[in-house]
């Protein structure tokens, strides 16, 4: 399916001197429908949800819950009450990390290619609560090692938390197999779906995952919004990190009674516009079709990779097989600092990419690599964007 018709929905791409935007793994662009949903809230019903009884407030409450249901469908969850609005994937994973009430000696396992969002909370709990945080080494540098997982799970393992699709190289881990192995051994599983759900169908019920976190700004939604999925019975067991207004049925000078999930995790007035915009974004992406997006990104990445992979001075980080790298092209140019590459592309060619360690410091530091330059495609990129990028790299190499 040719999805380039959706490009017209993104105002930035239709402006004069529009950039060649290849930084969607960091943050996607927003279509007009999402911008309109935010404007509509602030213009027409900029009120508080769930508290006041006037018409504006009812409208907020209704649209907030419609958005929750849109995110439910986006993640393939059964019940809207299994979706907690958060400010990003990081917050979602912290809600679980802190809420599990892990004790001295409890073990948490992650892969060795995790974003800081799925590394630092475990270090933090290790430092302050004495939990054990262990990392599972990949096979052939990039592939999840299912056999090693089986061995590494011990009786003290309380959680395996893994990245579904890596923001470093675009590779997707075998979620179903990982979850099955963990559940066979009675271990709960959290999945960092920040880079997978925007680009491929993710169905939490099918996967049988216990928790999964996403960031709305990676699927065309507003920044500062995300969602945490949890099986309802697992959410019920978590201890909320933040409590206060909107999280209680009642309170007195002596006590308080928490509301059931998801409300007990959504403390204080919420980002109503952000949540409503996130729901609209989820619908938009589902409308384009994530199978179509995945196929489109793979086509674009194949063009990029074939054009650049054999050029002298270029090295790609990630599996050799481009079909294993989604829409992400993470690379280095010999003799160039990755940030110099990104600045050069921006200044000379108006091409936006990301550079550095992409918050996957642990992977880079363990290998003594300074970072990479990273071009990442999404549904609105076309072959002309990719040609501009590959031409710019070729010209850079020959200069
Ligand atoms: C794989 C992955 N996990 C987690 C995150 C954290 O997302 P956020 O900063 O929105 O919480 C990112 C962001 O780049 C990511 O790529």
Describe the structure.
- The protein has helices at 32-44, 55-75, 89-99, 120-129, 146-152, 175-184, 204-207, 232-237, 272-288, 290-308, 338-349, 361-367, 383-398, and strands at 20-21, 83-86, 107-111, 132-136, 157-163, 188-192, 211-215, 226-230, 248-251, 256-258, 314-317, 328-333, 351-352, 354-356, 372-376.
- By secondary structure, it is α/β, with parallel strands linked by helices.
- The protein folds into two domains: 4-22 and 289-398, Alpha-Beta Complex (Aspartate Aminotransferase, domain 1); 34-287, Aspartate Aminotransferase, domain 2.
- A seven-stranded mixed sheet has the order 2-8-7-6-5-3-4, sandwiched between helices. Strands 11-12-15-14 form a four-stranded antiparallel sheet, with helices on one face.
- The site of pyridoxal-5'-phosphate has 13 residues, from helix 3.
Short description:
With 399 residues, the protein is an alpha/beta fold. 38% of the residues lie in helices and 16% in strands.
User: What oligomeric arrangement do these chains adopt?
Assistant: single chain
Radius of gyration: 22 Å
Order of helices and strands: EHHEHEHEHEHEHEEHEEHHEEHEEHEH
Low-confidence stretches: none
> Biggest β-sheet: count, sense, barrel?
7 strands, mixed
> Under CATH, the topology of the largest domain is which?
Aspartate Aminotransferase, domain 2
Average pLDDT for all residues: 97
Total number of beta strands: 15
Distance between the termini: 38 Å
Question: Percent of residues in helical segments?
Answer: 25-40%
General form: globular
Could you give the order of strands across the largest sheet?
2-8-7-6-5-3-4
Bound molecules: pyridoxal-5'-phosphate
Residue share in β-strands: 15-25%
The DSSP helix count reads 13
CATH first level of the largest domain: Alpha Beta
Structural class: alpha/beta
